[in-house]
Design goal:
Chain lengths: 278, 353
């Protein structure tokens, strides 16, 4: 019999706080119930976890709080299917299962000393938030940090409570954009790839970290290439229908790679080496 | 350990009775037109003349198994926020699989590299695998769809088995392959094989002679990757596929699974069930995006997994035991051998272009 822990068995956790970010994105701040597990728990920015609503099932979400802030683990969930709908019905005090951390993480060590360009679209801002806060908590390790965050409309922007702080910081250049004009909107209007071209961050000593819907990624990659970013300077995280989370169940593979264990973070250079099946 | 013994035909039932006394014995029997593994019943005849329609994979990797049970318990302090109790459902009890063919037992060596290796140990699989013994019957002759010898196996391959039986006139030559197997052949029912080892060798040779010339599948690993983006190629090969999934459910080496919850009031279970990569839903994401949107994409992944990705991850080992069940049971005659050979041929032609 194995001495390794059962990889399918979630830790029990309690939701300590929820934030209704947008009409269909809800943030859950959770704490593991076991003090021993809580003390032993470590993770890296970019790693994911499986949240369980017992009786409904499990789904994968990035841990979008940074490991530098361990009061709780934060997950932001867009309502899209059965498990996410069940999660949205939960509130502070409710109990869920957490299997984490799973997967790989952002190469934050090799990004030290470099300028960082974050480009997040919609719920794709969640994984970026982890790394952004981690870098802000280790600010001296990184060069200029720029954030371009876009959503369809002002109502669709998550992390609203934090946006004023991000906009106000001297050591972070934040640009917010929405797809079309909206009453009261004081920031940029335009699709992310177009706004990125106008921002024109220098590629020289920079790494771009991007996450968002596939169509945004496609045109953002093109914009980054036009701005001179090499494939190895672009980092992204992939979404897949992950089930087991430990590289066995067979649905998230791209050729020989399993997104749940070899990813979800890949450089564009690595992605180009994989069979074309995103 | 490889000391051959002899079991007369007349003692087979006594041996099965001995084995059944200690553990559940699964043995092949006829059910309608199919041969399936069921708990051994002396009153029901064994069917050892042909390979089972359904392989014995369920003995170690059940079609449906419980991973854990959960229960919501009312918290008197906070009646609206119940506590959650979760308990692992680890399997207990041993099984002997009697009368599988070498391909059916060898399938588990494909699983072992995934479920019971490296940094990960699947406790459900590991517990069942440890508690299961395979008493395997060497094949007397190849079936029309058999190609075990293409994938490095053969009709008397002991890999994955604990005991290997070979039918000879008047009985069986019995070889313990593992310690676990040796413990099953220790009773007084067995006598030394002596001169019958020659008959055993002859039976093995006869079975080998019934096989066609093996094809070299080593080039398939790269050839399948080369064909990855050629969707016309895959569309042609998959045109008649019905996406029914019979190939995956009957395959001794397919191990993709799903995890679902089943609720009954305040309690329920989390289950693992066989899944089927030929189904549209298998990779469908919540956003509606599907990275394998057509059956051509899905068949490509199935063949690619077995003959390219798995060998790439596991030292060249092919995730196919050559049993031919997917070929024999496909309602429209999709033949995995032809798919692999077509990819190899495509690569050969491209290299000459």
């Amino acid at each position: 019999m194995t001495s390794l822990p059962n990889p399918y068995l979630p830790d029990m956790a309690t939701i300590v706080e929820t934030v209704q970010e947008t009409p269909n994105i809800k943030t859950f701040r959770v704490r593991l119930d076991s003090e021993a597990r809580r003390k032993a728990f470590t993770f890296q920015p970019g790693q994911v976890g499986q949240l369980s609503v017992f009786g409904t099932g499990e789904s994968t979400f990035v841990i979008n709080s940074p490991p530098t802030r361990m009061d709780y683990l934060q997950f932001s969930v867009m309502r899209a299917g059965e498990v996410t709908a069940a999660l949205h019905r939960l509130n502070a005090g409710d109990r869920i299962g957490v299997r984490a951390p799973l997967g790989n993480w952002f190469p934050y060590e090799s990004m030290k000393g470099k300028d960082i360009v974050f480009i997040g679209g919609g719920i794709g801002m969640a994984p970026l938030r982890t790394l952004l806060l981690f870098m802000l908590d280790n600010r001296k390790d990184y060069g200029r940090i720029r954030l371009l965050y876009g959503a369809r409309s002002p109502e669709d922007m998550a992390f609203k409570a934090e946006l004023p702080e991000w906009l106000g910081r001297d050591d972070l250049e934040t640009v917010l954009t929405i797809d079309r004009e909206a009453p009261g909107w004081e920031h940029r209007v335009g699709l992310i790839p177009n706004v990125l071209r106008e921002m024109a961050p220098p590629a020289g000593n920079a790494v771009a970290v991007t996450c968002g819907p596939p169509i945004m990624i496609k045109f953002t990659l093109q914009a980054l290439k036009d701005l001179g970013f090499a494939d190895g300077q672009i980092v992204t995280t992939l979404e897949k229908r992950m089930k087991c989370g430990v590289g066995l169940c067979g649905r998230c593979n791209i050729g020989e790679k399993y997104v749940c264990v070899d990813g979800p973070v890949f450089t564009y250079e690595q992605l180009k080496e994989l069979p074309n099946e995103l | 350990m490889d000391q051959a013994k002899f079991l007369p035909d007349a003692s087979l039932a006594a041996w099965l009775a001995e084995l059944s006394a200690a553990r559940l014995v699964l043995a092949p029997r006829r059910e309608g037109g199919a041969v399936v593994f069921k708990p051994y019943d002396p009153a029901v005849p064994l069917e050892l003349t042909r390979d089972a329609t359904v392989p014995p994979k369920g003995a170690v990797f059940p079609a449906c198994e419980e991973l854990m049970r959960y229960r919501r318990v009312k918290d008197p302090e906070k009646p609206g926020q119940p506590l959650l109790e979760v308990e692992e459902s680890l399997p207990e009890g041993g099984v002997v699989v009697f009368g599988s063919r070498p391909c059916g037992a060898r399938g588990f060596t494909v699983y072992d590299r995934v479920f019971d290796a490296g940094g990960l140990n699947d406790p459900y699989y590991a517990a069942r695998r440890k508690a299961t013994a395979f008493v395997t019957l060497a094949c007397r002759e190849a079936g029309s769809a058999c190609f075990c010898h293409w994938v490095g196996s053969g009709p008397a391959d002991p890999d994955g088995s604990d005991v290997l039986l070979t039918q000879v006139p008047g009985g069986y030559v019995v070889r313990a392959v593992t310690e676990k197997g040796a413990a099953l052949v220790g009773s007084g029912l067995f006598s030394p094989a002596d001169r019958r080892e020659g008959e055993e060798a002859a039976a093995h040779a006869k079975a080998r002679e019934s096989l066609d010339d093996p094809r070299d599948l080593a080039p398939a690993r790269q050839a399948l990757l080369d064909a990855f983006d050629d969707m016309e190629f895959w569309s042609q090969l998959s045109a008649k596929c019905l996406s029914c999934g019979a190939c995956t459910y009957l395959c001794p080496t397919c191990y993709c699974f799903n995890i679902t919850d089943e609720a009954q009031g305040n309690e329920g279970a989390r289950l693992r069930t066989w899944d089927n990569c030929m189904s549209f839903q298998f990779t469908l994401e919540a956003s509606g995006h599907n990275p394998r949107p057509t059956k051509a994409h899905r068949l490509k992944n199935r063949v690619g997994h077995k003959f390219s990705y798995y060998p790439g991850l596991h030292g060249g080992a092919i995730a196919c035991c050559g049993c031919g069940r997917c070929i024999r049971s496909c309602p429209v005659g999709v033949d995995i051998r032809q798919l692999v050979l077509a990819a190899v041929e495509r690569a050969r032609e491209k290299s000459h272009d």
